[in-house]
Each structure stands twice: as C-alpha cells, then as structure tokens.
Design a protein that fits this description.
The complex is a heterodimer of chains A (79) and B (428). Chain A has 79 residues and is mainly alpha-helical. Chain A has one domain: ACP-like (Non-ribosomal Peptide Synthetase Peptidyl Carrier Protein, Chain A, Orthogonal Bundle). Chain A has four helices and no strands. In chain B, helix 4 packs across helix 8, helix 9 crosses helix 15 and helix 12 crosses helix 13. With 428 residues, chain B is α/β, with parallel strands linked by helices. Classes of the chains: A mainly alpha (79), B alpha/beta (428). At the A-B interface, helix 2 of A face helix 3 of B.
C-alpha cells in the first residue's frame, strides 16, 4: 500500500471512529463506515489539510469510497 | 389569600421520575448529594486552561476519572468520534440526560409513546469555547477549514437535539435561554407542556461549560467573579458572608425526567417529587443588577406559591439563588418580605457555596437538591458563611447540613437581563 493510502486510511479511522480492518479500498464512507453528509465534508477537509491539496466541491462529491479518495489524491500529487 | 388562589385542581399533575447531574462535586445524583451534605466544596484552581493572567483563577470544574469514584470519563458516555461534534456544554447535558433517562426507566416503545416524550434542555451561554476556536480559524484566513460541525456544536438547542436523537424522543423539542434562570425556566415550562397535554414525559434541565478563557474573562470584565480567594479556592464562594466578592463559575448539567402523574403511576415508576408551583417575573430595571428590594424576585416567588396553592408557612426549605455577590442580601430581603413571621421557621441555603454557579444549569441542579432535601429531610449547608453581612431570622444553614422535616421546597434562579424564576416542589 502506498504512503498516501496509509495516510488516508489513518484519517478515516480517526475521523469516523471505525476499526482499521473495515477501511478497505471499496468501503463507502456513507454506506459502510457510518458517515453522514457533514462527516464527509469534514473528511475532505482533513484530506486537503493532510496532503496540501485543493479538492473542489464537484470533485469532493464524487469521492464516495476510500479508493476514490486515494485515487484522487494520488492523481493530484502526480500532476 | 394565596391558598385559595392556587389553581391546582383539575390540571394534569407533573412528577419527577428521573434525575441526572454532573458538576464540580462530581458525577451522579447520589454522589453529588452526599458530598454536598458532607459539606465538601467542588471549587479549585482552574485547570482547563492557564488562568494566570486573569483576575479570577478559581472555578468549579467537573472532576475527571473513573465513574466508580464519582468522576467523569467522557468516553464512557459519548463515543470519541462524536465528542468532536459537540461543545463541552453538550457533553455535560448528554451525560446528565443519560443518567436521568436511565434512572427513570422510561423506554417508549410505540410511535405514540415516542411522540409523547419531549426534551427541553437549555443553556445560559452555549458553545463559547467552540465559537472562540472557530473565530481564530476564520481570523487566520482559514475560513474554508472551518469544521462543518461548528454551528451544531455551538447551538444551545442541540442538547435537546442530541438527547432526542439518542433516545428517539419525538415529542416537543425545545430549549430555554434565560442566562442563570435557564434551569428553572426549562423545568417550569416543560412541566406546563405536560400540564397542557402536549407531552406525557419531558426531559428537562440545563447545561453549561464556560470555564474557558472567554467565559472567565467576560465575567471578570463585568466585575461579577470572585478574585480575592485565588490562593484559597474553597473559600471563594461565600453567599451572604461579609467578605464575599463575586461568584465562582461552575460547569456541569442537571436534567430531570418530568412525567404526568397517572402515566408515572401506571408504569410503577419511582417518584421523587411533584412540580407544584412555578412563577416568573422581569425586573425591567438593569441588564445585570437587581433593583433595591428585589421586587422581581419577590413577585416570582409569590407567583410560584400561588400556582402551587400553598402559603409561606408550608415551605420548609428555600434553595436561594445566592451567588456570593452583593445581590445576596437583596434576595434575602425579598424572602423575608414574602415570608413575614413564617421566616423564623425557614431554612434557606445557597448550594452555590459548594458547587459554584453553574449558570444555565444551576436552576436544574438546585431544584433537584430541593427534591432530595424533601426525600431525606436534610437541608444542605451554606459553606463559608462565617460573618453574615446582614442579620436575618432565617436560618441560612451555615457550614453544616441540618436534619429537619421538609415537605415543600422553593428554588430560586435569577438571570442577567432581570429575569426571575421560582419553582415549588413537594413530596408525593
């Protein structure tokens, strides 16, 4: 697992108070990890802060799973 | 003619079937009550932050530690991930509400029962520390980093919101904001919601957590806090004593479960007391100070007795507002005027001498002290009342608790803005 993936996972565990084993790439923040709409707003902010990236609203709306977040951040970092 | 004016007949009766509290004397009603009766003080040097550059450096803070020792470990009550979404005053309210609801044993099952159960928990100030922190974020140009939980963390009615969500109580969801009278207004208004038939059960009370730099500095600027006892915190809150120099801030929450009498009886609930009287008034005088003679307090008490259909002679104990400020003697004067000759038989104490002033939570906590005084026939003491600044025929229960029969008790709370509220409770 990449460094980015590790960090994303850590942030999700911390913010949603879920067990690490549940934070699989396919896990949906809302359907699987118990987040509500405000939690996802906060999560995206935490990603922005931790990775020093901007995640615009329309992109944030498409981030539904752990993998979505990792992919988006990796793409930003590679660019 | 107070007796005959009482409109007690024909209305739905409201009793207390659950109690919860957390405050400077610790966690849990029985623990707090036994420490109060033992004459212990919950006041100490402020540890929530470094108060060194403020004139007031003492407060009543909730002791942290294991529940078995009567202390609070927040994670036992609220999951860590949810704690971040609430200001500390909501934490306090949720802890006290959880204790009260569980104590009552009320678990609505049907839709109808859930819709007949409401919540009315207020706060004097709300999420002050949360607002402070968020202001800094915005000031630093990081407005886009502001937590989406900022607003719901700071809003006063969110204690009621969280309690309703936790337990599925779908009845009236309301909140009171009347500064230091909040707790009494919440219980009194919630009782009337039941009397009017809008609900059968109401979870009511107040919560506060303003032992923070902005809270202490703000009340310091208003010249309201004690500043002369920073080295001897236990002596700082001294209602009616000639050396008193301001109130001592306290934090915590008090919540009761109010229930329609027949409803409580039908399910075999334990009943602590009945809410029999409630009176309110406004001073229309000054934003922070009561007027000479404290006629506002007098009228609130008189209305409460009238609605209870009782006379001053029936009252065995008054839990005074008694904040350890100059206003203490004005309240005393108002009580003496109302009670007349019956003042000689009266016990009146200020439990703020032990807990500090819990602002919006004070009235709820102190109403419960009245109910416990009735249950145990014990009146709690006024600590540090060494030399009264004004003599009185009223026994102010200096230093140590007293065993004495109490059937009916009165609790006073007055707030900035000139708002006054009194509650009369009676044993059942």
């Amino acid at each position: 697992m990449s460094e980015i993936a590790d960090k994303v996972k850590k942030i999700v565990v911390e913010h949603l108070g879920v067990e690490e084993s549940k934070v699989t790439p396919e896990a949906s923040f809302i359907d699987d990890l118990g987040a509500d709409s405000l939690d996802t707003v906060e999560l995206v902010m935490a990603f922005e802060e931790a990775f020093n990236v901007e995640i615009p609203e329309d992109a944030a709306e498409k981030i539904a799973t752990v993998k979505d977040a990792i992919d988006y951040i990796e793409k930003q970092k590679a660019a | 003619m107070l007796q005959s004016a009482g409109a007690n007949s024909g209305r739905r009766r409201v009793v207390v079937t659950g109690m919860g509290m957390v405050g400077p004397l610790g966690l849990g009603v029985e623990n707090v009550w036994s420490r109060l009766i033992a004459g212990e003080s919950g006041i100490g040097r402020i540890t929530h932050f470094d108060p060194s550059d403020l004139p007031a450096q003492v407060a009543g803070q909730v002791p942290e530690g294991p529940a078995a020792e009567g202390k609070l470990t927040l994670s036992e009550w609220i999951p860590v991930k949810d704690q971040r979404k609430m200001d500390r005053f909501i934490h306090m309210g949720l802890v006290a509400a959880t204790e009260a609801v569980e104590d009552s044993g009320w678990k609505p099952q049907t839709e109808e029962e859930k819709c007949a159960t409401g919540v009315m928990i207020g706060s004097g100030i709300g999420g002050l520390q949360t607002i402070y922190d968020a202001s800094i974020t915005v000031h630093e140009g990081r407005a886009k980093r502001l937590s989406p939980f900022f607003i719901p963390s700071a809003l006063i009615n969110l204690v009621s919101g969280h309690v309703s969500i936790k337990y599925g109580f779908q009845g009236p969801n309301h909140s009171v904001v009347t500064a230091c009278a909040t707790g009494v207004h919440a219980i009194g208004d919630a009782a009337r919601i039941i009397m009017f038939g809008d609900a059968d059960v109401m979870v009511a009370g107040g919560a506060e957590a303003t032992v923070c730099p902005l809270g202490i500095a703000g009340f310091c600027s208003a010249r309201a806090l004690s500043t002369g006892f920073n080295e001897t915190p236990g002596k700082a809150s001294r209602p009616w004593d000639k050396d008193r120099d301001g109130f001592v801030m306290g934090e915590g929450a008090g919540v009761v479960v109010l229930e329609e009498y027949e409803h409580a009886k039908a399910r075999g609930a334990k009943i602590y007391a009945e809410i029999v009287g409630y009176g309110m008034s406004g001073d229309a005088y000054h934003i922070t100070a009561p007027a000479e003679g404290h006629y506002g307090a007098y009228r609130a008490m008189r209305s409460a007795l009238k609605s209870a259909g009782v006379t001053p002679a029936d009252i065995g104990y008054v839990n005074a507002h008694g904040t350890s400020t100059m206003a203490d003697d004005l309240e005393l004067e108002a009580v003496e005027r109302l009670f007349g000759d019956d003042a000689r038989k009266l016990a009146m104490s200020s439990t703020k001498s032990a807990t500090g002033h819990l602002l919006g939570a004070a009235g709820a906590v102190e109403a419960m002290f009245c109910m416990l005084a009735i249950r145990d026939n014990v009146v709690p003491p006024t600590l540090n009342l060494d030399n009264p600044s004004r003599e009185s025929v009223i026994d102010r229960v200096a230093h140590t608790a007293q065993q004495r029969p109490v059937n009916i008790a009165l609790s006073n709370s007055f707030g900035f803005g000139g708002t006054n509220a009194s509650l009369v409770v009676r044993g059942v």
